[in-house]
Design goal:
single chain, alpha/beta, five-stranded parallel sheet, two-stranded antiparallel ribbon, 9 helices, about 35% helix
């Protein structure tokens, strides 16, 4: 029997988006200069997070996304307002100022300790891309080529706007088994973006994972999922790495794997011929 998923409006993510929209209508504060634009994240250590109103979830994403836990938290209003302050900041300032702020706050993260600064900048630990943020990312990767910048999105239109050539930009486009996800995958393929790879959120053992997928994430609450059947399975999800700070050790999502280096060179040559 196929899995049945609720319409987005009836999910916790749908409720969180609706609640955030109501707050955002009258909440215009921006992130204070003394505050850090990064938020703590158990798996990543630190990431730049955005509110749910930036998301365009699929029916599956809306049912299983960990961001939905905010809707159940007694502190959800406080958390949402922090995310809105970050969002309002990006909407207000120039891309150059936003890029400098991301870099400055990244360098202010602790180099050592319980949650050390990761060797990459992660954008959209929660939430998704929007044009003002994309412009800031494009400035950031050009000004600081020494730092890998890892971006996750479900929006083909935002992929089209991201820098095509910066070697330190790693775009992970998120897929799942929903029909809309497959449609978006086709849209992204048509862009021919050279800095792109795909991840897949697996929610059922019967999921058919596309051959283009580099990274597979298992739904954390589903303990029936395989942990040894795909070479791209996240090692933290498979139990091979501790979840805390796993992304800094694994490197799969924010650095080129050996097999991808050859493929990237081939795709670049094909793109150059078409141009």
């Amino acid at each position: 029997m196929n899995e049945v998923y609720l319409p987005i409006a009836f999910t916790l993510v749908g409720a969180l988006i609706a609640r955030t929209e109501r707050i955002a209508a009258s909440y215009h504060e921006v992130l204070a200069a003394a505050a850090n634009i990064f938020s703590e994240n158990y798996k990543l250590w630190w990431s730049t997070n955005l509110p749910a109103i930036t998301c365009r979830p699929t029916s599956i994403c809306a049912c299983v996304c960990y961001m939905a836990l905010l809707a159940r938290s007694p502190r959800w209003i406080k958390s949402v307002k922090k995310l809105l302050r970050v969002y309002n900041y990006f909407m207000l300032v120039t891309p150059e100022e936003a890029a400098d702020r991301i870099y400055r706050d990244y360098t202010r993260l602790p180099a050592r300790g319980k949650r050390p600064r990761p060797p990459f900048i992660r954008v959209c630990g929660t939430g998704d891309l929007f044009p003002q943020l994309v412009l800031a990312i494009n400035v950031l990767v050009r000004k600081h080529p020494e730092i890998p910048v890892w971006v996750a999105t479900r929006k083909p239109a935002m992929v089209a706007l991201l820098d095509r050539d910066a070697p330190n930009l790693f775009i992970v486009f998120s897929l799942d088994s929903s029909q809309e996800s497959w449609e978006r995958m086709a849209q992204v393929f048509s862009l021919g973006h050279l800095r792109l790879r795909f991840s897949y959120l697996r929610t059922s053992p019967k999921d058919r994972i596309p051959a283009c997928v580099s990274v597979v994430y298992n739904q954390q609450t589903n303990h029936r999922l395989p942990t040894d059947d795909h070479p791209g399975l996240c090692p933290a999800d498979a139990g091979r790495l501790p979840m805390a700070g796993a992304c800094a050790k694994c490197r799969r999502c924010w650095s080129l794997q050996p097999e991808e280096r050859e493929d990237l060179c081939h795709r670049r040559s094909q793109y150059a011929k078409r141009s």
